[in-house]
Amino acid sequence: MQKELPARKNIRLRGYDYSKAGIYFITICISQRVYILGDVENDLMVLSKVGMIAERNLIAIPEHIHGVKIDKFIVMPNHVHLILEINENVGTRYIASETLGNDISKDNERTPYMASLQVRSKKTVSKTIQQYKSSVSRDIEIVGLWQPKFHDHIIRNDDEYNKIWQYIDENPAKWTEDKYFV
Questions:
Q1: Alpha-carbon distance 136 to 6, whole Å?
Q2: Beta bridge pairs of residue 153
Q3: Does 52 map to a domain?
Q4: In this predicted model, what pLDDT tens digit does every residue of 24-48 receive, in sequence order?
Q5: What pLDDT does residue 31 have?
Q6: Is residue 103 part of a domain?
Q7: DSSP per position, 104-142
Q8: How far apart are the first and last CA of the chain?
Q9: Nearest to residue 28, comparing CAs of 174, 160, 173, 153?
Q10: Given CA atoms 8, 156, 69, 26 in this order, what sign does their dihedral have?
């Protein structure tokens, strides 16, 4: 008899389009919250080799995804916090296919397949985080490094933005009070 798995709770805001322009507070955790990204010493984060790779790949996100910006971040021993900004004109990568058409047709217009792909390929918050997690896992050659999901919060105003900025700034100094401290 097969054991029934518990239903996963949907953590997304119902009806919200996560591909539209906005500013998001993101928390990404290491699987089982293992301390692999470094340690907090004297209220400062000291990155391990893995933590340096995580930071480098985080900083590189805007180089790989046009229209996405990292406003603020901190790599902690077992998680990463960041403020992610998605702009209106987020770049889309087109993939050529021999059977379904190329990027540009002979008359220099997108084929119907490519137009359809553009709609399906919006760079959303989830896709950005998935690409980041994949890049770090690939660079350090560890499968299952990250928890499958991540926490996000849509930042709605300047007051929220400033409080989150301060929280990220003070995270190492308040590490022993943090819910991710184990």
A1: 29
A2: 25
A3: yes
A4: 999 999 999 999 999 999 999 999 9
A5: 94
A6: yes
A7: S-TTSS--HHHHHHHHHT---HHHHHHHHHHHHHHHHT-
A8: 36
A9: 153
A10: negative
CA angle 138-46-131, nearest 5°?
A: 25
Q: Is residue 156 part of a domain?
A: yes
pLDDT given at position 123: 55
Average pLDDT, the chain: 79
Give pTM, 2 decimals: 0.75
Domain count, the chain: 1
Residue 69 CA: distances (Å) to CA of 63, 90, 121: 9, 10, 18
Residue 101 φ then ψ, to 5°: 120, 170
Domain CATH code at residue 64: 3.30.70.1290
Q: Is residue 105 part of a domain?
A: yes
